[in-house]
Write a structure and sequence with these properties.
This protein has about 300 residues and is of the alpha/beta class. Helices cover about 50% and strands about 10% of the residues. An eight-stranded mixed sheet has the order 3-2-4-1-5-6-7-8, sandwiched between helices.
Length: about 300
């Protein structure tokens, strides 16, 4: 099965909650009036597109209808497809691999699939012959280093780890030294995901940043925030906290296959101004890929045959 088919399959819950309901609304509505727009608004909100984005979409449909750019309800879906494609256009930016090593910091709360994401990223880049080193920087979570070690073995890349409970900063320091010495192309750094205390999180991330910059002044070159799509708008709230504590350059959205609220992809871009760079639509290694906005919108609106 190709990735588009996996993406389409992974978005099936969102499609039932979003596209199918819009299709039904369009079929049973004679005209684009305020009742129609109110129903459309409810559908968008239930898919976790977000209040700000929903208002923008409703306003765009209303304006287009008034200007006669949309002549009937049957033209609403093509209009939304085009509008969303343009809205997401600068998401899906490719991960920049230039500096050697390119240092990518990966942040996110426990349970979002952060360590698995790093493993899948390592696998993806080693397939393209990049030399990858992993830093098991989440020293607080039980078995995080063991989990990452399994992924490193699977991907055929090196890993730097310390004992559970060790100083996160020490792991990062050793990993930076190892990546430089081994002439690695990419260093992925796992971090602790405890969000119960924002001050602690900030202090830990600042410490990690200081160590990285001391060794490689222009690093980290990317900071990926891993979010769980099944948490919907809560993912947006998590992102806001991390944006205050880390210079987030892009989002990795996991578990899109497990939610009816895949509209959060759009909310992340519109409400946070962050590009979604990678998505996961299943547990398999091949279910993880760079985010391609046009394919996402196409799969979202693809009718189930």
């Amino acid at each position: 099965m190709g990735f588009f088919e996996r993406l389409k399959e992974g978005l099936s819950k969102t499609r039932r909650n979003f596209t199918d309901r819009i299709q039904e609304l369009v079929s049973f509505s004679a005209k684009i009036d305020e009742d129609f727009l109110e129903e459309l608004e409810m559908i968008l909100l239930s898919a976790d597109v977000g209040v700000k984005t929903t208002e923008k979409l409703i306003s765009a449909v209303r304006t287009a209808a008034k200007k006669n750019e949309i002549k009937g309800t049957e033209e609403v879906i093509p209009f939304l497809k085009k509008y969303l494609s343009e809205m997401l256009a600068d998401s899906g930016q490719r991960t920049r691999i230039g500096a050697k090593p390119t240092v990518i910091l990966v942040v996110g709360v426990n349970g979002v699939g952060k360590t698995t994401t790093i493993g899948k990223l390592a696998n993806y880049f080693t397939l393209f012959k990049y030399k990858v080193v992993l830093a098991a920087g989440d020293t607080f979570r039980a078995a995080a280093a063991e989990q990452l070690t399994i992924w490193a073995e699977r991907a055929g890349c090196d890993i730097v780890r310390h004992a559970e409970g060790a100083d996160q900063a020490a792991v990062v320091f050793d990993a930076l030294k190892a990546a430089i010495a081994r002439k690695a192309d990419i260093l992925f750094i796992d971090t602790a995901g405890r969000l119960h205390n924002k001050a602690n999180l900030m202090n830990e991330l600042e410490k990690v940043h200081r160590i990285i910059k001391r060794e490689i002044p222009e690093a980290p070159h990317e900071t990926f925030l891993v979010l769980d799509a099944t948490t919907g708008q809560n993912a947006i709230n998590q992102a806001k906290v991390f944006m205050e504590t880390a210079n987030v350059s892009g989002v990795v959205l996991t578990k899109l296959d497990g939610t009816a609220k895949g509209g959060v992809v759009i909310a992340i871009k519109e409400e946070l101004g962050l590009p979604v760079k990678w998505i996961g639509v299943g547990e398999g290694i091949m279910d993880f890929r760079p985010f391609e906005p046009e394919k996402f919108v196409e799969a979202l609106f693809e009718t189930d045959k």
